[in-house]
Amino acid sequence: MSTRFQIASIIYMMVNAVVFGIGIVTVLLAPGLANHAFQLIPALVIASFIVSAPLAWFIAPRLRARYMRQHSA
What transmembrane ranges does the database entry give (predicted)? Predict the structure, then answer.
């Protein structure tokens, strides 16, 4: 198991919580979307699980100390 995969696995649920939070606030605050909340919230849960995996994979290398040493000014 690669280090990137391990880091991505650890941060996956945190990324998922943020993505879901942004989505649920959007659904509940927009009057047009709030009318269809019973249909949109289950879709939002599934979408947040799917979208969070690539986001966690993208964020993982930036959490390594080696990345910061190579990209510091």
Answer: 12-34, 40-60
Q: Is 8 exposed, middle or buried (0-12, 13-18, 19+ CB in 10 A)?
A: buried
Residue ranges making up the domain that contains 29: 3-70
pTM of the predicted model as reported, rounded to 2 decimal places: 0.82
Do the beta carbons of residue 47 and residue 22 sit within 8 Å? no
Cα–Cα distance, 33 to 29 (Å, whole number)? 8
Q: CA–CA separation, 20 vs 12, rounded Å?
A: 12
pLDDT digits (tens, 9 = 90+) for 44-60: 999 999 999 999 999 99
